[in-house]
Each structure stands twice: as structure tokens, then as C-alpha cells.
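Researcher: For the record, we're logging two predictions in this thread. I'll number them. Prediction 1 follows.
Model: Prediction 1, sequence and structure:
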Amino acid sequence: MKHTINLWSFIFSFICVGLLILYFENESINTAMNWSSTDPIIFLLI
């Protein structure tokens, strides 16, 4: 049971880090292109 909890927490933290990386990459692209249509999609995912 403890092993599965550690596995799920690892998967959850991995997904959170992936979403943060995607969000910051989209933010840098948006500031470079002055285009912010991907922001609502990111907030919907969160």
C-alpha cells in the first residue's frame, strides 16, 4: 500500500511539473509573439 501511494505521488508531481513547464514555455512564446490565446486552455487544464 505504501508503495502505491509513493507511486501515485510521484506521478502526480511529475504531471504538475510537466504542466508548469508547458505553462512557462507558452508564456515565453506568448510574450515573444504578443499572443495569449493559449492561456485559457492552460487554466482549463489546471
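Researcher: Logged. Prediction 2.
Model: Prediction 2, sequence and structure:
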Amino acid sequence: MTLEYLVSNELKEKIEKIDQKYNFFDYYNEYSKIFSNIINVNLSEMEKADSLNMGILLISHDKKIFYNGGLWQSEDVEYIGKLDCFYTAPAWDWWINPLFERKNHKKKNKTLMIVNNFDTANFKIKKELLNEKFKIEEEYNLSENNSKVNLFYKYLTYILPLTFSRELKRMNNFINRIDAETVNFVLRGGFFLREFFDIPNKKIEFLNPKNKSLKINNNHLYVDDCIGSGKTLSLFSASKENINYCCLNSTLPCKIYEEYFPNVTFSLPNQLLNFYSCRLFEDNPYLIGVDYNKKGQLVYYNNPIRDKLIKKIKSFNNKRNITKEINKFVKEIKFYNV
């Protein structure tokens, strides 16, 4: 098992610099490897999906890297996302996806689509895709009770939003606890995160981390979706500044970031089964709700699919024992080595 397998080449050097006191593979073993060899799982205990009239479509286009057509306005579509995003951020959930194996789908510019009312809407959806010159690469119907299909569907449409909700609770506690006059949501992912916070006593601003005239304020709190290798923090000069940084997910344990950025007060995930925002909305302006055009100007998006995802995540606000439920789901899975 090589480091290149676990992280992209551009992150390798960064992690090696961070990793002077910590062994990355120790953390890999702690956070991921334990899930890769579980084979004694009774799939017969899984919930049947006969009553779920849902379908999964994998589509592609000769000239477009992502679907941007009229089905974003369709009430029959539950979700649209990039399949490539399931192979970024090496983590425990790489083994959750035996349906679309990494070696066959990574960097293929394929779009994943979840369709409601599959029996009745299927023909209409396919006709629209044909008119827009998109090809259907693969098609699955949940009512057929294929274990791989049903597990992937449950992971994408339930476990991911559920885990998202758990991390929002942690972030909300941190935002309310920190004495900051302004909360800066870091674009682009921060625009989506803003939908989930009620912050009546603080000023709200959106921040472009690539803005060359960016000035960091110690009285501000910065909210981001993914810390990754710490590139955004480096743009913030976080190795020198005392700032508060609240993040939805991370790719390494918090103590590694704390070692590298000792002046930063962090709120990062503390659960073994972490959430990864890239799985839901990376490079997906239609879900995030905002993007930059070629002139560097902000362009805003809204659609029923985005609204439904926000509503679903908010519906878990009062749900208890989320981590226990996620752990139960993991035990349902027969994991596959990538």
C-alpha cells in the first residue's frame, strides 16, 4: 500500500512536511484500514427496497464534464452529482462503493443521477437526456433488491445527509461559543453551509480565499466545508495569525492540523466515521448555489434538487444517536478492497 494510493501526488509533499512527529500510516490504520477486510457480514439483514420506486442513472457527454441541463428543474430527480467526487479524499467510505469501482470510473467525467418515481418518470427522463445528447452508461432500479445498489443509494441519500447533520451540530456549538463579531463563510462551499445556521447576533460575510487583497481579522470566525491539506489556511497565513476556524470535514485527524497551525483554534470532526463534503457537492455549483464566471463574478443558482437536499439535512436537526446509526450501517456492508 503506497502513499500515492491514499492521497493525490500534490498532497504527498504537504503531508510529509506535516508528518514529522506523526506517522501517516498509523492514522490510515486507525481511520480506514480496519474497514477494508470485513467479510463476514450478513446481507440478508438489510432492509428490502421493494417499495422504493427509485432509480440510479450514470450518464456522460462527449463534450461536457458534468450535467447542466433542464433536469435540474425536475421534481422527478432527487440528486445530481459528480461520480469522480467519490474517489477524492481517501477515507473509510472508499469501501462503501462496490457498485462503481474506482478503477473503472475515476476521472471519466460521469454524472450520477437519482430518479424518483422511476417507473413513471424513467421514459421522460431518458427522453430529456437524449435531447441533450447525454448517454446513459449504467442504469439501476432499487426495486430489484441488488445489495450493492441499495447500499450505495442508502449511503448517498441517507447516511451522507445524516452525517452532515451531525457535523453541523458540532459547528453550531462552536460558532455560538466563540466571541467573534463577524462570521466569514469561505466560498464556494461556505455558501451552501450558510443555509444551515441561524446567527442573529453576528455579522455574516462571504469570503473568497483567493482574493489577493484578503485581510485576516482575529475578531472574525471562518467557516469552511473542507480543510483538506490546509491550502485555505495557508492563504489565511494561519501559521502566523490567531484565528478561529470551523470546518465541516477534514482529511486528517485534528491534532495534525493543530501541530502545523498552532495559533488556530479549530472545530474539526472528532468521529472515526467522518463525513466528506466532496461526496455531496464538490465542483457542483448547482447544489452549492454559487460559482465564479470567467470574469471572476459570482453567479447564483437555485433549483428543486438543491432545495430538497437542504430540507433533508435540516430534517435531521433533532435526531439523536446519529453516530450509532452510522455505525450500524457500516456493519451492514460487505467491504471491498479498492
